[in-house]
Design a protein that fits this description.
Elements (H helix, E strand, L loop, with lengths): L12 H19 L5 H5 L9 H19 L9 H9 L9 H21 L6 E4 L8 E4 H27 L3 H8 L13
Antiparallel strand pairs: 1-2
Amino acid sequence: MPIIVSSEAGKDERSALLAFLDAQRGGIRRAVHGLTEEQARSAPSASALSLAGLIKHVTSAELGWVRRGQGQGETRLSPEAVAEFEKSFVPTEDETVPVLLERYEAAARETEAVVRALPSLDATFESPRYPWDEGGTRTWRWLVLHLIEEVARHAGHADVIRETIDGKGAFDLVFETGAMPEPDWSLMEG
């Protein structure tokens, strides 16, 4: 959580998975709401991660997986791929938060279009072997679930970084951005 995915989004599996993925993306996007560029690029926690770096990374990861699913991209972990992975956490000077957010939105649109165009989520692709994954035949269902997992993990990182910057938690940002109306807390009493 912190937002509830509408039960209407679950009218079919594909729509439900894409809705849950987008809910997690929202956590990443909201984490930079109202921050300066300097704050978004800062790494105020024990981690070396910044919010801007997380946006760059999740965009790169999402596009990488979608392209892998389409049979494009790296087939093995080359030194160039390792260097590219490491750079995916560090925005360049011209990769401002608005630029990074637009790229993230474009990646989301691409993912949605590709997933919706699939004949079935049971369609398969070959995933390369990496030190952290044995690789092999994967379904697109697995790919979308993996994206949900990846983005959710980094949305949690974003929550901690944002709260370290200015004390705003995920729910504060949900209500502040209008992603969900603030509930009537009096219903919790008595």
